[in-house]
Structure formats: C-alpha cells, structure tokens
Amino acid sequence: MANTYKITITHYDSSVDLEPYTKTYEIPDDPDFAPMTALKALHWINRYHEPVAYDYNCRRGTCGRCAIMIDDEPRLACMFTLTGNHSFAPLSGFPVIRDLVVNKQEAYAKFVVSNHTIKTLAPDGVLKQIESEFWREKLYPLNACRECMCCYAGCQALNIFNKWGRFAGPGAMQEIYLRHIDGQDRSNRLEQAVFSGVFECVQCGNCTQYCPSLISCSENIKEMMDEAERAGMKPQGKASNYWPLL
Ligand code: SF4
Ligand code: SF4
Ligand code: FES
Which of 30, 38, 110, 202 could form a disulfide with 77 if both were Cys (CB 3.0 to 4.6 A apart)? Predict the structure, then answer.
C-alpha cells in the first residue's frame, strides 16, 4: 500500500477563472481515514490543504451525488478506494459550477420527461401483484438507479456525437424500459423510446460498464432498439434526421 497518494484535481470557478487548471496534492495514508476513498481524500485536502468544491451526501454509495471522473472514468467517489496516484475531474459532459460540482439539471430533466409512473386505467386494488421472480430479476434492479449520471458522463452518443438535444440518454432510457417490460403499463413505451432517440445509441457499452447499480443499461436499450426495428419503427435516413427530443 502506498504511504502517500498524489491526487491531481481539476479546479474551475466559473465566476473567476477563464480556464480550468490542475493542482496536485500529496496526502498521507492516514489511518484515521482508512480505507482512503476518493471522497475521504477530498475531505483530507479540504481539511489540510485548501478548499475544493465537491458534492456528496450518503457516503455509502446510495445517493449518487458524489460522482466524478476518476482517472478519466465516471465513478462514485465514496466507493472508490485509492490505490496510488489518481486524477479527479468533474463529470464529463456537464457544465461545471465549481471544481468537481457540475450542473446536472439537463440530465435530471430527461428523467422527468421519461415519465415512468405507471399508465393504466385499472384502479390500484385491481392491479395484479407483480410476479416475484420478475420483480427480483428485472424490475428491482432498474429501481436501483441512483441518478448519479455516470452513464451520461460515459455515453459516447452524448459526449462524442453530441446527441444531447436528440437522445434522452442511458439513464432515462432505463425508466422507459422499466415500464416497457411492465405488462400492466398501458402506454406505448416502445414508441416513446423511439421518440426519445433510442436509435441514437451507438452501443458503446459504457453505460453498463460504469453503472454503480449494475443495471444492464446498453443491453436494455438494445432490446428496445431491436423490438422497435422489428415493429417497423426505425426512422429512415441519417440519425440527424430523427425527431428532436422535446
Ligand atoms: S451504449 Fe448507448 S446509451 Fe449506453 S453509453 Fe453507449 S451510446 Fe450511450
Ligand atoms: S442508470 Fe446507473 S449510471 Fe445511470 S444514472 Fe442510474 S445508477 Fe447512475
Ligand atoms: S456520497 Fe452518496 S453515493 Fe457517494
């Protein structure tokens, strides 16, 4: 185990800095902080070096607020144990407010637009009990989404092909998928997926790779793409001719 860690942090304060800049901090392997996670390293820097802006709440991997780029990959800071020297940067693709704090409003809005509350005319008492294995295997994992936005930060469709205006993104797509596979939902979720840009996904697999809730994001999206294509719902022409997401 390392005796000290070198942590390089990308700083930026949108109210004073023209450009982001990096600073490297040495921190000891302080037994009071063991195991030294990325979040604890930020606490240490804040306490013994200088202020750095970051967000967190639960400190145990459930709230999703501490997501940052660690060594260029989106991770939950509270769940990442340091192994040596690392770089911390704000989540890719999001406007930086200060240092590691980003504005996630646009992505949150995509979750809201996905409108995943069940649509049915059946009164609550008439809705059938969900079969337990289906709940455990399929629906429950989807409900574990922390809205951490790691999948958005890793998404190639959004961040390389700049589909932010046309694609609801991997997280919101899981909400649509949740109701698509729920046999008691009466709205056409496949159509919703198409209008939300499901065919903009380039199947890079990063959403599955980085999801701390272990949701099979890209596989679920592929399932909807294949079903929509079989149903003749795939738009013709270039992806840029698809409908913009409202
Ligand atoms: S598989 Fe699709 S939705 Fe998931 S990160 Fe890649 S492009 Fe984005
Ligand atoms: S799907 Fe996974 S990576 Fe995406 S917001 Fe939810 S928990 Fe985070
Ligand atoms: S602080 Fe809540 S997930 Fe890290």
Answer: 38
